[in-house]
Amino acid sequence: MSAAAAQALSMGPFLRIENISKRYEGTDTPAVDDVSLDIARGEFFSLLGASGSGKTTLLRILAGFERPDSGHVFIDGRDVTDLPPYERPVNMMFQSYALFPHMSVADNVAFGLKQDGMAKPERTARVAELLDLVHLGNKAKRKPHQLSGGERQRVALARALAKHPKLLLLDEPLGALDRKLRESTQFELKALQARLGITFVMVTHDQDEAMTLSSRLAVMDQGRVQQVGPPNEVYETPATRHVAEFLGAANLLDATVTDWGNGMATLACDGFPGSFKATAPAALAPAARVAVAIRPEKIRLCEAGAAADNKLQGTVKDIAYIGDVSTYSILLDGQRSLRVQSTNAKRGSLMPTEGAALWLSWDAADAVVIAE
Ligand code: ADP
Ligand code: MG
User: Fold this and answer.
1) How many helices (DSSP H) and strands (DSSP E) are in the chain?
2) Ligand nearest to the CA of 219
3) Which ligand has an atom closest to residue 32 CA?
4) Which of 26, 138, 302, 366 has the fewest CB atoms lying closer than 10 Å?
5) Ligand 2 centre and the CA of 174: distance in Å?
6) In terms of domains, do 133 and 227 share one?
């Protein structure tokens, strides 16, 4: 979180989600299960999770399109749980954009303003301002089908911003765009949010998108929030196996604690000789069963004699050369393998070949204990 966001949150959250649960009629598991979150004014907050994890349901509850079975939503200190959508200082940008196909770009953006009875001159000025904001000033008269996917996305964004919402909810806003366009649009969206200072809550299943855009993110699984934090914190210190595997790639080794002190655990990893060291901020009792998470980019390929906190021997099973990086699958003991990623920083540098025997090492500081 930025220092500004941290300060804003310390003064009380702008959006408070308090013990929200929702089960759809005819289903036996809740879509949203006791979720509580505090979001500061001006944050770009993401709900990240696989399809079906409850993200859209939670967003629709914030917008007022869905009623929670229990819990409360507060916006700017006011309980809005029982307010209809149009009485909330909120707008939502839908996954499909839901533009009116027969209306021009300008009329799409003007739609809500017209419904509210805003006078024509004022409306025209506001629409022009919004279209400038999303760089579509010269396409005001086009129909949605005459626009590219990225442009349609920007019309939907302009329309969602028309009524000066205090909170903008975005459901997979870049989902319909191809990869290259998505990356450039991500930066535009982030710049726009920073410029407007509006609080954004975005839903996405795309971890890169959530990492790139968010001041903080919440990882959701089966209707529950598994972990909340700034992207780097969640990536570097995953709280659960699910988070470790969902956010980036992780090697997970099952282990038993043999000792703990000063934030460092000594471990016996199932099936591997010797002892291992890993970061563990919270105290662990001897004999506790845990998992150790090691990110592929934190593992080095090394010589037999190299000194290291943690070492394992293996053979190269697969190599994926992607250009900037290579990913290796290193077979350890005939069945298990570790994923290792290294940067190809030097042209023509020597790379391990398939079948080569080698050693892997990693620092205790770069391995994290997950105590579940
Ligand atoms: P996400 O947006 O993360 O993909 P959703 O919030 O859409 O997840 O869905 C969460 C769960 O609720 C899923 O199991 C989904 O099938 C179920 N669900 C969503 N909408 C409805 C509905 N209108 N009726 C019944 N079940 C629903
Ligand atoms: Mg969804």
Assistant:
1) 9, 20
2) 1
3) 1
4) 26
5) 13
6) yes
Same domain as 102, residue 59: yes
pLDDT, residue 3, reads: 66
Residues 104, 108, 113, 116: what is their CA dihedral angle, to the nearest 10 degrees?
110
178-228 pLDDT tens trace: 888 888 888 888 988 998 899 999 999 999 999 999 999 999 999 999 999
Domain boundary among 188, 211, 245: 245
Structure tokens of 97?
């954009």
Ligand 1 atom 12: the closest Cα is on which residue? Answer: 31
Q: Which of 237-241, 289-293, 302-306, 323-327 has the lowest mean pLDDT?
A: 302-306
230 and 355 housed in the same domain: no
- Pair 222, 271 in one domain: no
- The per-residue pLDDT for range 19-36, each reduced to its tens digit, is 999 999 999 999 999 999
CATH number of domain containing 52: 3.40.50.300
Please choose from 25, 48, 55, 57 the residue to mutate so as to test ligand 1's pocket, defined by most ligand atoms within 8 A of CB.
Answer: 57
What's the domain range around 302?
Answer: 249-371
Atom of ligand 1 nearest to the CA of 49: 3
Domain-terminating residue out of 192, 218, 245: 245
**Cβ of residue 28 lying under 6 Å from some atom of ligand 1:** no
Verify that 33 and 141 share a domain, yes or no.
yes
SS3 category, 86: helix
259 pairs with which residues across the strands?
266
Ligand 1 within 6 A of CB of 204: no
CB of 31 within 6 A of ligand 1: the answer is yes
- Which positions ≥6 away from 195 have C-beta within 8 Å? none
Number of domains present in the structure of the chain: 2
Q: How many CA atoms lie within 13 A of 61 on its CB side?
A: 31
